[in-house]
Write a structure and sequence with these properties.
Elements lengths: L1 H10 L1 H6 L7 H8 L4 H8 L3 H7 L2 H11 L19 H9 L14 H4 L7 E10 L2 E11 L3 H5 L3 E3 L6 E2 L19 E8 L6 E3 L7 E3 L9 E11 L6 E10 L5 E11 L11 H13 L9 H53 L2
Antiparallel strand pairs: 1-2, 1-5, 3-10, 4-10, 5-6, 7-8, 8-9, 9-10
Helix pairs in contact: 4-5, 6-7
Length: 352
């Protein structure tokens, strides 16, 4: 009996060997493909013509985008209108999932040269904040980038319009006294979108690159978790987007501010920030620039932290060089004034 079973199975093995994954029903394949990440899905679409159509399924890419950034559900409907609107989900994922390449150019164009490219008239921010893997905030912020106040002031986009909020426990009840809140466990996604072109940009690291806490002698002040990504430029021309989440340092889980600012290596005034017009020029260059290859994992997050530390180190060195140069100029000026005073005093003595 066993021999006959083996014989029958061996006789049917050529037909079984001829079966491939492509022989599965399309509905089953779509369910399987929706369990893949974006990079794997794009690679599968390049494997064969049969898989290309399945990998281009707009609903699959929409599910991937909503899984990564729930806030994009509230994006303006104009992004999905017209021809190719449903296919925009794949474009959005390809733009926003990888980090921008900070080596795409040695220098950034200023506003004067960027007028030929067109500065964004509006910026749409899709912001998702999580703590310990639990989503605590999901919001879309539409910013008018044409008003003179925005262009002349330091670049800043606020994601909170009310007086903050308190992080809740998974049971949707207020956090008990024993609830341990750690800013290091926060994760943030801040996607910038130009609705006129549809291009998107990942403007923050996923994990904090630094957490600033107040000195102990100040008590339980506010802690600031900083999520930074260098969007373009190199050396003295580097420009970084920095998202900051300000929360109660007492461990009660109250988030006061969620904001996005822009910093450059050459900014003056000790923290005044980059103006809205200059920041828009940097964002426009990054939107049109390249993205980093590879997947966004722990290694890439570590690279974001290292680039932020390198950015801060170069900025401090530049500030110290400027201070030494100004000190040398002040010393020379003091020496010249002192020498002139001495000469004037000697002349006065001679002609008395």
């Amino acid at each position: 009996m066993a021999d006959s079973t083996i014989a029958s199975s061996s006789s049917s093995s050529p037909a079984a060997a001829a079966a491939t994954v492509e022989d599965l029903p399309a509905d089953v394949l779509r369910l399987v493909l929706r369990r893949l990440d974006g990079a794997s899905l794009a690679a599968l679409g390049a494997a064969s013509s049969a898989f290309r159509g399945l990998a281009d399924d707009p609903d699959t890419w929409r599910a991937l985008c909503l899984g990564a950034w729930p806030s994009v559900r509230g994006l303006p409907s104009t992004l999905f209108s017209g021809a190719g609107g449903r296919a925009y989900w794949r474009t959005l994922y390809a733009d926003a999932f990888p980090f921008p390449s900070s080596t795409s150019g040695a220098a950034l164009p200023g506003p004067a040269t960027c007028t030929r490219r067109r500065l964004p008239a509006r910026l749409v921010s899709a912001v998702d904040l999580c703590h310990g893997g639990v989503q605590v905030m999901s919001r879309v912020v539409d910013t008018d980038a044409t008003c003179p106040w925005f262009l002349g002031s330091p670049f800043r986009v606020d994601a909170l319009l009310q007086e903050g909020f308190t992080i809740l426990t998974p049971s949707s009840s207020p956090a008990p006294a024993a609830f341990s809140f750690a800013p290091e466990e926060l994760t943030l996604s801040w996607i910038l979108i130009d609705p006129a072109t549809g291009r998107a940009l990942n403007a923050s690291s996923r994990r904090p690159v630094r957490v600033d806490r107040p000195p102990r002698w100040l008590g339980n002040g506010d802690a600031v978790a900083r999520f930074c990504v260098v969007i373009a430029g190199a050396g003295e021309e580097a420009v970084a987007m920095e998202a900051a989440v300000t929360c109660d340092g007492g461990g009660r889980g109250h988030v006061r501010e969620v904001s996005l600012t822009c910093a450059s290596m050459a900014e003056e005034g000790g923290g005044g920030g980059v103006s809205g017009e200059d920041a828009l020029a940097a964002v426009a260059a990054a939107l049109a620039g390249r993205r980093r290859c590879g997947r966004r994992g722990e290694e890439d997050e570590e690279a974001r932290r290292r680039s932020y530390e390198e950015f801060g180190r170069r900025k401090r060195e530049r500030k110290e060089r400027k201070k030494r140069r100004e000190g040398a100029i002040d010393l020379c000026c003091s020496g010249v004034v002192g020498a002139a005073a001495l000469v004037a005093f000697l002349v006065l003595l001679v002609f008395r």
